[in-house]
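Supplementary Methods, section 5.1.

A reviewer requested that the exact input to the structure prediction be made available. We therefore reproduce it here, unchanged from the version used in the analyses.
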Amino acid sequence: MDHHHHSHLFPGVPLALGSAILFGASAPLSKWLLGSVDPWLLAGLLYLGAGIGLALVHWGRPLLGLERVETPLSRPDLPWLAAVVLFGGIMAPLFLMLGLSLTTASSASLLLNLEGLATMLIAWLVFRENVDRRLLMGALAILLGAAILSFDSGTLRLDPGGVWIAAACLCWGIDNNLTRKLSSADPVQIAMIKGLAAGGTNVILAFTLGAAIPDMTVIAAGAVVGFLGIGVSLVMFMLSLRHLGTARTGAYFSLAPFIGALIAVVVFRESPSVSLLVAAFLMGIGLWLHLSERHEHDHVHDPIEHDHLHSHDDHHSHVHDGPVTEPHAHWHRHTPLRHKHPHYPDLHHRHGHG
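The structure derived from this sequence is encoded token-by-token as follows.
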């Protein structure tokens, strides 16, 4: 079974872009909800919505007759999961809500680009993920587009709100890179745990600090925005990490603030500006540079044993006793292999580059 006729862009790129669109939409919607609910409580509601929604998906699978094909979390995953929950689920949303309450919506959604930058820098510098000039230029074009949007108001004051948002982005950058350590495990289970932990923490903190219980419609709206904008978005992000690696997924995800700004223009009738058009042009170039990348060279796969969801292809040619359905997950061993094809730093391509 030769899967190389499939585009190497699929399914990683659509997953990353889908994740960015859902998350991008959640920023202006959250700002709209902030009019009637305490910021801290809203962070909790968004994440609880994600956690509870995914819990229903997770435990509803047997009812819907869906096989659980993904690899469940195992003991070695737990320290990574704890770090991901702490940085991405507790600290980052807290810092973001503090920042949002102190700054404007457009300024906030644009500062969130720092997440993409932090994610890529940590992936390249700390985890030594492969990058070439084309990718770097693409990432820079996307981030430059975002920066131009930020200067829209004439000046980007690094007010206290901005500093909190930058801190949130750094936490998410750490979180995204640590999540890669978990990208072979079940993404719904991980996102569910993260949502419940983060949501629970923020809701308890909000009530401790005297937040009022909001209207039921606001709670419901927050839960739906959270389920789609955080929960479903996070599952798509984690699936994309599997196929593209952290830096590239992070680059596509950097389009989220631009999507947020577009929604603000369309839905909230904010006037579109010259900088929005310039940013659109730059982000278009960046996106094209990334989409047209072909990373292809002779590479060696070292022997490796792991457990994840897979279909039999050039990287999975092991035999089974008896019939199997695809895709499936089980512990398997890869024998050493040398070949050449377009690839990304996915689960099977974490090799070094000279």
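The beta strands are 296-301, 304-310, 328-334, 337-342. These observations are discussed further in the main text.
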